[in-house]
Amino acid sequence: MAKRIKIFDTTLRDGEQSPGCTMNLSEKIEVARQLERLKVDVIEAGFAISSPGDFESVKTIAESVSDCTVASLARCTVGDIDAAWNAVKGAADPRIHVFLATSPIHMQYKLRMTPEQVVAKTAEMVAYAKKYCSNIEFSCEDATRSDWEFLKVVVDAAIKAGATVINLPDTVGYTTPAEMQALIQYMMENIPDSDKIEYSVHCHNDLGMAVANSLAGVQGGALQIECTVNGIGERAGNTSLEQCVMAMHTRPTLFGELPRIDTKQIYRTSKLVYSVIGQTAYNTQPLVGANAFAHESGIHQHGVLANKLTYEILTPESVGISTNQLVLGKHSGKHALAARIKELGYDLSDEQVGETFTKFKDLCDKKKVVTDSDIEALITNTTSSPEDERYKFVSFTVATKGRQGVEGTICLRHEDEFIEKTYCGDGSIDSLYAAIDKIVCPPEHTLDKFIINAVSEGQETLGEVILKLRCGDKTYNGRGLSTDIMEASIMAYLGALNQFMD
Ligand code: KIV
Ligand code: ZN
């Protein structure tokens, strides 16, 4: 009988450890909750030993998630395994993920260990981890550049010591689909007790083959795919979760039993991860890019109008993109908005619906039609903005002063006091941010990222500003939404400042 394929999400570990993708604790928790809604099987929440912050976030996620296994990565050392266990032990289903490199180049130059030492260390450390936890994954780092006969010995030792999942990573994105399929088949056929454990694949995308290689691994017999949302990760990234899952859904006869993923949560998860790391999908990005479902050429449009299946192998709705043409406007009431929010798949409290409705009404004064994208942006803004912000935005003005530059004046409310400051700088945003600094007096910080997105189409579209502030080794994200891009920029900046002034 076909076994269900499991999705192991490493967005918060392998994804987050890559430059430009760092997240703070509250962002990681928000992403973990969404991964649970997406119904991934395993969340690799971090690498507990790597920093106190990582330990804290793995522990918090382990305690906040109930429907997924929560794993922490550990090298083959007692300290790493102790930290991993201490971080995940509060989870409903904890896992320790131990790894050691097995390729000649890694063993000789990185580990400075002989092959015999690698086998012995594997057995010793898997057995050590097993004393804490029944669910142990062992990864042979750089497996695809390892000697298969040697790999067999290491994997056999790991299984005998108690590993329940064996992962064969393509650490440097070097393998090909045929080779990956053959590798998994070879291990399954040649290692006793292979039927008692699960094989897993973990592919990097250096040659653009991570998804193809992972799917080939599944065809070879692997039951777990390690991947990240939007394929974020080191260098060219990891395997994209959404592409793997939708490939299996589109060609269900080619793989085992489909993963339990709620595919309608894919688009929302992708957007959340992008907004947290301050990036956006590229236009032609499969499934989540702006053009992924657009048919512009006449021939294609003609075909799609005659029969959708001529050029469409999957629908935008299947990944949770709404194509509803019904729009809401200023005559729509709270019930209509609440019903639309529900149809879009959001489960908001009455209070959150109320807040979204207030923002919706404000928006209707500025924009004739409010689309689903607008509503989704308002919801994201409502659910993630802290209620007890220290400094609240009241108003702003900007005035050009010829050669002197631009004068920005800002008014904020702090407790019951209204404070107004002015600054004359190079440009509008620069002056407004400096005026805010005069009120808030934040510690020294830099603006790491500043992105402006249009939420829908047309001149009166909502503008979204996403930014990332760095203060020492910590980063804070801010998100602002308004039909006025300067106002959105202020909200984003203030949102980030309010976090680090707490
Ligand atoms: O790419 C890799 O080999 C890894 C392992 C630590 C699983 O990320
Ligand atoms: Zn990796």
Using brief descriptors, characterize the structure shown.
single chain; about 500 residues; alpha/beta; TIM Barrel; Double Stranded RNA Binding Domain; eight-stranded parallel barrel; three-stranded antiparallel sheet; binds 3-methyl-2-oxobutanoic acid; binds zinc ion
Can you characterise this structure?
- With 502 residues, this protein is α/β, with parallel strands linked by helices.
- The protein folds into three domains: 6-277, Aldolase class I (TIM Barrel, Alpha-Beta Barrel); 322-384; 391-501, Alpha-isopropylmalate synthase LeuA, regulatory domain (Double Stranded RNA Binding Domain, 2-Layer Sandwich), CATH 3.30.160.270.
- The chain contains 17 helices and 14 strands.
- The strands form three sheets. The chain has an eight-stranded parallel β-barrel, surrounded by seven helices. Strands 9-10-11 form a three-stranded antiparallel beta sheet. Strands 12-13-14 form a three-stranded antiparallel beta sheet.
- Helix 2 packs parallel to helix 3 (52-64).
- The radius of gyration is 25 Å and the shape is globular.
- The model has no long low-confidence stretch (mean pLDDT 92).
- 3-methyl-2-oxobutanoic acid binds next to strand 5 and strand 6.
Number of domains: 3
Shape summary: globular
Order the strands across the largest sheet as they lie in space. 1-2-3-4-5-6-7-8
Unreliable segments of 5+ consecutive residues: none
Please give the CATH class of the largest domain: Alpha Beta
The span between the termini is 54 Å
Major β-sheet annotation: 8 strands, parallel, barrel
Tally of contiguous helical segments? 17
What level of helicity do the residues show? 40-55%
Which class do the helix and strand fractions yield? alpha/beta
Mean pLDDT: 92
Strand content: 15-25%
